[in-house]
Automatic annotation (TrEMBL):
Family classification: Belongs to the G-protein coupled receptor 1 family.
Keywords on record: Cell membrane, G-protein coupled receptor, Membrane, Olfaction, Receptor, Sensory transduction, Transducer, Transmembrane, Transmembrane helix
Pfam assignment, any one: 7tm_4
Segments crossing the lipid bilayer: 27-49, 61-78, 98-120, 141-168, 207-226, 238-261, 273-292
Compartments (UniProt record): Cell membrane
Keyword Repeat recorded: no
InterPro entries per the UniProt record, alphabetical: GPCR_Rhodpsn, GPCR_Rhodpsn_7TM, Olfact_rcpt
Domain G-protein coupled receptors family 1 profile, chain residue ranges per copy: 41-290
Membrane topology of the entry: Multi-pass membrane protein
A molecular function GO annotation: olfactory receptor activity
Coiled coil: none
Gene it is expressed from: LOC100771499
Protein name: Olfactory receptor
A GO CC term attached to the entry: plasma membrane
Amino acid sequence: MAPGNLTHVTEFILIGVSERPELQVPLFFIFLVIYMLTAAGNLGIITLTTVDSRLQTPMYFFLRHLAVINFGNSTVIAPKMLVNLLIRRKTTLYYECAIQLGGFLVFIVAEIFMLAVMAYDRYVAICNPLLYMVVMSRQVCLLLVSLTYFFSFFTAIVVTPCVFSVSYCSSNIINHFYCDNVPLLALSCSDTYIPETVVFFFSGTNLFFSMTIVLISYFNIILAILRIRSSEGRKKAFSTCASHMMAVTVFYGTLLFMYLQPRTNHSLDTDKMASVFYTLVIPMLNPVIYSFRNKDVKCAVKEFLKNPCRRFNLI
């Protein structure tokens, strides 16, 4: 890229997870395995919760959408990342970069709110079990999922053009493995106050509302569990909730670390490591944490593997 002030570039260069040549092939296989496990796990959940009659409750309805979101988020990031690990010139076109950022924002914001919806669903199921099917009716479930996707698309439509409205100078090298707003704004030679404010506002608002719902829901769930008289019942309930809360804590923790700190405090190399968790690792772990430890899902998997054709009504 020639030096001088550039208001528009035709392509960016993605540095990737590491610049060391000897790590490119090992990293390719590591992330290929992660992506394959993510795809298999989430597509498996989507299939099971669609075809199995026992998995048609609100909890599995939300779980199916979380699987769609996790698979979408990984697919926006992983394929391009894997290709770049095997080629020397790791370029991405300007509009391709914008589309990737927009897609990433859609799925990451959708996951933020879907986790809040799932926490609320568990709160109603545990704290108000007799009213569960009334409160979480089909209409309410569809409304909650629709609002989740609405907020995610709205965020992407506003933030993406704002990030790409800045000017670029002599460098078009993005110190990241995908097009994210933080490293993109770090490249700009123009005033980034408005884009940074927009990113901070949407990040802070989305995280605040979703985390408030999650914290209040799990707080009430824990209180309800403590009131269980049976020690074995409390232990079983805490075991399930602990894994959910750990997944939520890691997810929200990395997002807070990434997006709610001033630009001057950012270390892009550290941010890349945090990004690996919520774009690749957590989508791989969520099917295990939220479903495959569940007895109903285990039974559904066994029956599906015995006779998949019957489950799809092919025979």
